[in-house]
């Protein structure tokens, strides 16, 4: 049976995957010439974690916001060869390098709820919004300079999702989409 959704608000807290922008891509963004002489390599990732908020205009249409954050970091030590121009002596020094990418996203969304029942909410949607990507690079090598750059751009998202409410106001959800997290799982609430 269909459930009346007038004035209903849905709130989702989610985790998205996979992290296609990071991993091997970040290595290419921050590689120095001597990277292959590196040691103590490490990488870490966080997110994307996000929230979705939807406000029902009627039984099948909602508008809302999808916002998320993710970060990735790599670090390594690299051996740099230095030759003294006066003596001709060669020294090898190890320096620390660290690269970080931070990503923020906020998208306004329009959703069409294909099937809404007491326990189920099956929907599709589209949205347009804003991405902010910040890259940071730092090192203790005195011959290199710390850099930071940022890019902002308009982004769109198309998605298909399902929420299942096992309690009156609490459930789980899953969503697939183009741009942003390809897949996400969520804890959902409605009020």
Written overview of the protein:
This protein has an 8-stranded antiparallel beta barrel. With 191 residues, the protein is mainly beta. The chain is elongated. The protein contains 1 helix and 8 strands. The protein has one helix at residues 24-30; strands at 9-17, 38-56, 61-83, 90-116, 120-139, 147-165, 170-178, 183-190. The model is unreliable at 22-26 and 29-35 (pLDDT under 50). A hairpin with a 6-residue loop joins strand 3 (61-83) and strand 4 (90-116).
Key traits:
8 strands; 8-stranded antiparallel beta barrel; 191 residues; 1 helix; single chain; mainly beta
The radius of gyration is: 23 Å
Distance N to C terminus: 19 Å
Count of helical stretches: 1
The tally of strands reads 8
Strand composition percent: over 45%
Topology as H/E string?
Answer: EHEEEEEEE
- The largest sheet has its strands arranged as 1-2-3-4-5-6-7-8
Biggest beta-sheet profile? 8 strands, antiparallel, barrel
Overall shape:
elongated
Low-confidence stretches: 22-26, 29-35
The chain-level structural class is mainly beta
Mean pLDDT: 86
Helix content: under 10%
Describe the structure in brief.
The chain is mainly beta. It contains one helix and eight strands.
What's the topology here?
Layout lengths: L8 E9 L6 H7 L7 E19 L4 E23 L6 E27 L3 E20 L7 E19 L4 E9 L4 E8 L1
Antiparallel strand pairs: 1-2, 1-8, 2-3, 3-4, 4-5, 5-6, 6-7, 7-8
